[in-house]
Amino acid sequence: MDDWTLETWVRWFAYSSLLAEPPAVWASTSVQVALITKILKKHGVRKGLLLDAGCGTGRITVALAEYGFDVIGVDISPKFVEVANERIARAGVETKAKCVVGDLRRLIEVVKDLRFDAIISWFSSFGFYGDEVDKAILRNFAWVSKPHGLLLLDVENRDSVLKARGFQTSYRWTLEHGDKVLIINTKYDPWTSMDKGKADVYEKSDEGLKKVAEMSLQFRLYALHELVKMSKESGWHPVEAYGDWTGGEFKPDSPRLVLVAKRA
User: Fold this and answer.
1) pLDDT digits (tens, 9 = 90+) for 123-174
2) Are 109 and 35 in a shared domain?
3) N- to C-terminal Cα distance for the chain?
4) What is the Cα gyration radius of the chain?
5) Same-domain status, 47 and 67
6) Which CATH number characterizes residue 181's domain?
7) Is the CA virtual torsion 135, 80, 58, 203 positive or negative?
8) Cα(198)–Cα(184) distance, rounded to whole angstroms?
9) Closest by alpha carbon to 139, among 228, 257, 232?
């Protein structure tokens, strides 16, 4: 497959799910959803239809449905969507939520005539393709948004990431869960702000670690001013930004970049 997102999120679902929604992120879901609902209510969205853009296995979709919102989740991975809908059923919110397979690059074809009161792109579900495609995705978000609809876009803060790495262009880190070990090696390109690399996947056994897969990775690391400019050029009016999932003020060293914008 030439498209790394299909290769990683679809073919290697059993392993990439650890990257998409690691245990530590699951543990703080209630905190994250509290911030999302606080922002929605602050800007007048107390009910209505939400889009969970890049829904993964339904973590945020289910939680927002439990809050009483109607939610459509879209994800490129059929297996992610299958698991998400199973979670929706177990939570008993089938009348409030549904996840479907779709590519955000072709979002208009996926949701057709549906229009959303708010669009949530959470936990680095944005920035896979580079500036021009990312901008096109933001335009898609604006197209399927209702007039004055809201956008919540959550990504890693570039400056914080680079500081944590000691401003080194090459970086290696490890993620372990159960019998799985992911060793991730990435290289940051300061000319494009793209972080590209691979994740080698190992399974633990009595004989040690056995390599079972190799996944490509590519993420655009954004600074606040870049997302502000890109969103303005894509039909959005930025109104505020937060620096973490508790709703803290955005600062240069904030771990997250949560941009809130209204449809222009």
Assistant:
1) 999 999 999 999 999 999 999 999 999 999 999 999 999 999 999 999 999 9
2) yes
3) 37
4) 18
5) yes
6) 2.20.25
7) negative
8) 6
9) 232
142 and 242 housed in the same domain: yes
pTM of the model: 0.97
Residue at 242: amino acid letter = Y
- Asked whether residue 258 carries a pLDDT value surpassing 70, the answer given is yes
Token duo for residue 209 = 């670690």
Distance separating alpha carbons of residues 119 and 139, to the nearest angstrom: 12
Give 12's contacts (C-beta < 8 A, 6+ positions apart).
Answer: 201, 213, 215
Q: What is the pLDDT of residue 21?
A: 85
Structural domain boundaries, residue 147: 4-157+222-263
**Which of 207 and 223 is assigned the larger pLDDT?**
223
Q: How many structural domains comprise the chain?
A: 2
d(CA 37, CA 92): 20
Does 229 lie in the same domain as 212?
Answer: no
Give mean pLDDT, residues 225-250. Answer: 98
Query: Are 40 and 70 in the same domain?
Result: yes
Tell me how long the chain is.
264
Shared domain for 19 and 128, answered yes or no, is yes
Burial (0-12, 13-18, 19+ Cβ within 10 Å), 232? middle
Q: Specify the CATH number for the domain of residue 89.
A: 3.40.50.150
Arithmetic mean of pLDDT, 10-25? 90
Q: How many helices (H) and strands (E) does the chain have?
A: 10, 11
